[in-house]
Specification:
The chain is α/β, with parallel strands linked by helices. The chain has six helices and five strands, in the order βαβαβαβαβαα. It has helices at residues 15-24, 47-65, 78-85, 97-113, 133-141, 152-169, and strands at residues 3-8, 30-36, 68-74, 89-94, 118-123. The radius of gyration is 16 Å and the shape is globular. The N and C termini lie far apart (52 Å).
Length: 170
């Protein structure tokens, strides 16, 4: 059984993430979505919310593809997480050339740590290449429409989270 690991913070999960997940299921028998804890990024959604969000948004992909999708929070090194879940492949999404420079450095470091785990890059579809969770949150904070970038369920979660944040600030 070939297991892949697709890591990220998923704060929130976007249509771009879902596109990469959908396409990665064709490459592996089991796909583990690694939800990074990464306190340094100051996520809008807490870990449990992000894990639940990823689970709910990937359920239909798993059913349609027949690929088992698991969600696994992690705070250790990516390569250690890959070992923990039995992944032989790390799946990374690329939006633009700028992403490649960072990803190239990560691959080289990960190969130094464990050269038995391969990294596979999937280019986001053209309509998803500009999507970044950080920008989605900023657009939503400023009252913009993010439905092109996230599913209706995630849009509602963003609106609810922002409304609660505004109410708490008052």
């Amino acid at each position: 059984m070939r297991t892949g690991l697709y890591p990220g913070t998923f704060d929130p999960i976007t249509r771009g993430h879902l596109d990469i997940i959908r396409r990665a299921t064709a490459l592996v028998d089991k796909l583990v979505i690694g939800v990074a804890i990464n306190r340094d990024k100051g996520p809008m959604f807490d870990l449990d919310e992000r894990v639940d969000m990823v689970k709910s948004q990937t359920r239909a992909i798993s059913e349609a593809s027949g690929c088992e999708i698991l969600v696994h929070p992690f705070e250790n090194l990516l390569i250690d997480c890959a070992r923990d879940v039995g992944a032989s492949i790390i799946v990374r999404g690329l939006r633009a050339v700028a992403d490649f420079e960072y990803e190239y450095q990560m691959v080289n470091m990960n190969r130094q740590l464990d050269d038995t785990i391969e990294t596979v890059f999937l280019m986001a579809e053209a309509q998803h290449q500009a999507i970044a969770s950080k920008l989605v949150k900023e657009i939503a904070r400023l009252g913009g429409n993010v439905t092109k970038f996230v599913t209706p369920d995630v849009d509602q979660m963003l609106r609810t989270k922002l409304a609660a944040s505004r109410a708490a600030a008052e």
